[in-house]
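Possible race condition, two jobs.
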Amino acid sequence: MNNNHIIATQIMGLVEGVDFGNLGEHEWRKTKSGEIDTFAFSYGYCNGPVCVKCGYSYCEHCKDGPDEPCEIDLPDYGKYDSDARCLLAKLAETYDYEVVENKDGFKVNLRKGQTVILGVGDTFPLAVSDAALTTID
């Protein structure tokens, strides 16, 4: 199990097979009458359905059907600022925090009462991930 999986399941509360990973069959957006909306995706001559679970779409004129599984990638909390910001927002539900940038990279200080947790990293996402992993018993 990698660090992103640990953070996703133990801190963020995500569930594999529901929030990320293989989600089974595509679930196509429906029209009000209950039929698959073949214009949910439309660009120029191309149009087709859109999966409400993973966002995948394809052009029904260019392809006979979907050629990709219904999957959502695991967030990469140690690589992307946007994923690290979501993680920090989740941590902020329990901890006060401070982010410090210096010549060596970043430090993330998490505080709850007398408890202080320090995360360090060359980048903001690595520092947030380091701090988050330290919060897990």
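Job #2 (started ~2 s after job #1):
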Amino acid sequence: MGQVAKHKESVMGEAFLPGDNLLTISRDGTLKKYSIKARKTIEEVNFDLPFIKLALDPKENKLVNIDYDGGVSFLSPDNLNDLQRFTITKGNLLSLAVLPDGRIFCSGDKGGLYLVDTTGNLILSWRHGQPREEDLI
């Protein structure tokens, strides 16, 4: 039996991909694609970003992840080297959800809530129920 995508630091997120593959992200910024059938790691990329959460956007067939540095990143499951990252806040991002229309909703450590479109543009930012401008980059 193979070991599932061993990382140097904690695994922070995972997503099942088409073709019986599993993608995992680590706090050390490593992404690993694991073949469930072959029971081995088939691809590994290190972005040196402190990844926190990972989700699959089925509408756009993109992987979405957030990091401790206030960034939202988009990846193609077919090309993990093609990372597009956008900084949306000066604080840390902690949670992530992909809405049915493909927009991304995330929350930050300072009580901020952020709504981002599929191209990384910040649509709305709230803090304690109020729209905020000062947290935006």
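The first strand starts at residue 11 and ends at 17.
Logs attached separately.
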